[in-house]
Amino acid sequence: MNSQSNRVLIRNGIIITPENIFRGDILVVGETIARVAAAIDDAEARVIDASGFHILPGLIDAHVHLRDPGATHKEDFASGTRAALAGGVTTVLDMPNNPQPTTTREALDEKRSIAQEKAACDCAFFVGATQGNADECGNVGAVGVKLYLGATTGDLLVTDFDSIYRHFAAQHGLPIVVHAEDNEALQFFASASRHSAKRPPLAASLAVARALALAEATGRQLRIAHLSTARELALVKAAKARGLNVSCEVTPQHLFLSTEDEERLGAFGIVNPPLRSPDDVRALWENLADCDMVATDHAPHTIEEKRSSKPPSGMPGLETMLPLLLTAASEKRLSLQDIARLTARNPARVFRFARKGEIAVGYDADLTLVKLDQEYTLQKPWQTKCNWSPFEGRRVRGKIASVFLRGQVVIANGEILVRAGYGKEVGVA
Ligand code: NCD
Ligand code: ZN
């Protein structure tokens, strides 16, 4: 074995792709997957025995709030990307609702340089839509435009038709990702007592219908963030059938929690969109084939903030998404291939990441190795700075063992080995 070699042979793991599950070897040269086959011999490669492990493509989380700059007491690029890797996530797409929102070239460049210094996993960035920046959004180096149609954490919100239409009709090819809750409906229901009643399914379906109609009129690629109800899914499904370039994400909180958890979780269960009825949760599970991706909407707030008289909305999710999905796979609620499709291939395709999301020759060697039969309890300590989880105390089956990011072992036996700054910005094809 040549210790200087930049060749690594991951031997005898069970490789999961959206099409297939098969026992095989993966040869990594430098940062890239060079070969995938049933049996590979390579005299120069350092061999890693993956017997007994399942290998997923490194997860891509297309919806995270890393809070940096501006709210680094909740999270920053260092802690948030470590939480990502601990959760098997090798690429994160960071949202723009910072206290000073990421809505200009300068703001995005500032975020980019912070990420260069601190990020442990790969990153890409959204630009936030404002009333005035439709023409600028294509030139800031973002992978997508985030448009808030309803008020949530932060000040980003666009509600007038004029500005919304300008964003859909803008002369750039970036997808628009909408936070689809209708703001007038949110205001109308604001006096309800439960959080889920303040932001009812009607608010979501109104905004989804509006965004779909605009995408249809302008030809804009659209992604619905955190879709959470049966009615929204029916609208998206019909739009896809008409040929619209639309995709949707669902979150772990809308798959694994419901309004039945609202009382138990109290402020820690407050999230936008809110937890939904068991009927809506069932509809998401029954129609997972029509969902394009699972993304966390990782939105950390401190325990003190959550315990305050005005608790903010949002919950962390990076470290718990994959164990929850693996547990669901062990219960046959979805397949391991579904996980590869929903958390790697589809997000890479929607955002046109040419080297991400596949265990295949020429792709970045981003790999998440898991022990499927290992049962454990989700619990502290967490990597996320907020240091809590709505899933704390849950028994899960399926544990993340090691993670490769561009050929480097960044997690081994559950331990984080990577240095801050190893993470790179992901380029668009
Ligand atoms: C998010 C946050 O805190 O940044 N909160 C949330 O409840 N999901 C904002 C958002 O995505 O709505
Ligand atoms: Zn969000």
Summarize the structure.
This protein is of the alpha/beta class and 429 residues long.
Keyword list:
alpha/beta; Urease, subunit C, domain 1; nine-stranded mixed β-sheet; eight-stranded parallel β-sheet; binds zinc ion; TIM Barrel; 17 strands; binds N-carbamoyl-L-aspartate; globular; 429 residues
What's the helix and strand layout?
Elements: E1 7-16, E2 21-29, E3 32-37, E4 46-49, E5 54-57, E6 59-64, H1 77-86, E7 89-94, H2 105-118, E8 122-128, E9 144-148, H3 161-169, E10 176-179, H4 183-188, H5 195-198, H6 201-218, E11 222-224, H7 230-241, E12 246-250, H8 252-256, H9 262-265, H10 278-286, E13 293-294, H11 303-307, H12 321-330, H13 336-350, E14 367-377, E15 395-405, E16 408-412, E17 415-416
Parallel strand pairs: 1-4, 1-5, 6-7, 7-8, 8-9, 9-10, 10-11, 11-12, 12-13
Antiparallel strand pairs: 1-2, 2-3, 5-14, 14-15, 15-16, 16-17
